[in-house]
Amino acid sequence: MPPTISPPLLHLPFHTTRARLFSTTAPSRATDFTHIVLGAGAVGLACARRLAAQPGTTTLLLERHRHPGTETSSRNSEVIHAGLYYGATSLKTRLCIEGKRRLYAYCERKRVPHRRTGKWVVSQTPEQAAEVEKVHRFARDVLGRDEEGAWLAPTRWLTAEEVETREPAVRAAAGALESTSTGILDSHAYMQALLGDFEEQGGTTAFASPVVRVEALGRSGGTGAADGSVGWRVWTSDDEADCVTAEVLVNSAGLGAVDVHNMIVPEERRRKAYFAKGNYYSYSASAPKVGTLIYPAPVPGHGGLGTHLTLDMGGRVRFGPDVEYVDSPDDLSVSGNGLAQALDDIAAYLPGLEREAVGLDYCGIRPKLSGQGSVTGGKGFVDFYIKKEDGYHGWVNLMGIESPGLTSSLAIGEEVGRLLYESGHAEPQALDRQQEGKDAASQSED
């Protein structure tokens, strides 16, 4: 079983491949590969895994770092989200709920460390309780049940007395909403498993290969702008020879996705990337003890879900993230600017907090498509951007893949497969059953 590694560590025990020089021609086909997937975070890995399972195709995964998952995918809360916050018709809701189901099953099958901890959204005032009740009604009345009658995002209301009985250290003066399908996982072990699946299916990985230029090949009808009708060429250095071609381009470059988008589209379609840094705080004291994830009541229009209490797979408490917009995705210096406010927010639901035991830990950057976007549904909400880009052939573009991207990753991989192979692609269940058979065969040889 892969070791558990804490999020701040960037030197992960993954298989790595040196940057390589690609030929621009292949004797047996018009392009070097069928698919190029840009970005080896959790979402890129899930997309590459899905596409590598497509019969009769080849897939290349390009990553600018020397290891997969060193950016947003490994610098987060490692929470398996329930899908409570993102609005009835959003991609975030649909893919989070579907991804959650797939992720729990995958972690079980691949022995990825994970745990259904549950989550409480706590309220201290009648006004906060009203906001939490909206989440409860959304889960019950809008999301509802699946075809077999199971709740898609099961929740139940806890009184202040129930909270005190089950978690004496937690304060929820006006009650709390319990989400029983929320959990945690070891994101590094998960990404290692995805990478293993991808390479076992014949996928090719190239790390330390930053994308510096992308060119659409061919023009439909022989006129107009290049549109990818005969493929795509991607350069990984300024050397003209250091490029590779494919029929399909999947831009899942995370923090660099908008840059890749802007390399391709005309100036009037270019977008601005926004970067929201979230600082996390460690807790060195042994008390108070908490065994459930604790989230404050949501604030409408806010860019995050508040300074919440999460646990790692070893049971250690951590707090965060806050929200601080920065100019660069490389700004990974942990900031203490929000610590005083964070301490007050935490103490509201954890009154026994030893403030001096809270310290700066690590931070992560979330890719945003708006500078003031709300993570919850309603005014200011910005959904995932996942689509076949208009006016181009063979380009699936993924931008703004922040939370709940980790939870949604397997479902996003299936979504990309559906967009590219809407009729006739391998059914997800068939792919999972095929993998289960491989796993069983492997275990029988141990």
TrEMBL record:
Cofactor(s) essential for the protein: FAD
Q: Which reaction does it catalyse?
A: (S)-2-hydroxyglutarate + A = 2-oxoglutarate + AH2
One Pfam family of this chain: DAO
SUPFAM superfamilies (alphabetical): FAD/NAD(P)-binding domain
Is-annotated flag, keyword ATP-binding?
no
Which keywords are on file for this protein? FAD, Flavoprotein, Oxidoreductase
Q: Enumerate the InterPro entries for this protein.
A: FAD-dep_OxRdtase, FAD/NAD-bd_sf
Q: What is its EC number?
A: 1.1.99.2
Report the leader peptide range: none
Q: What domain of life does the native source organism fall in? A: Eukaryota
Where is the FAD dependent oxidoreductase domain positioned along the sequence?
36-417
What is its EC class? oxidoreductase
Establish whether keyword Flavoprotein is in the entry: yes
Q: Identify the Gene3D superfamilies for this entry.
A: D-Amino Acid Oxidase, subunit A, domain 2 (3.30.9.10), FAD/NAD(P)-binding domain (3.50.50.60)
- Tell me one GO molecular function of this protein: (S)-2-hydroxyglutarate dehydrogenase activity
The segments labelled Disordered in the record are 423-446
Q: Which family does it belong to?
A: Belongs to the L2HGDH family.
PANTHER family tied to this protein: L-2-HYDROXYGLUTARATE DEHYDROGENASE, MITOCHONDRIAL (PTHR43104:SF4)
Listed name of the protein: L-2-hydroxyglutarate dehydrogenase, mitochondrial
Question: Organism, per UniProt?
Answer: Carpinus fangiana
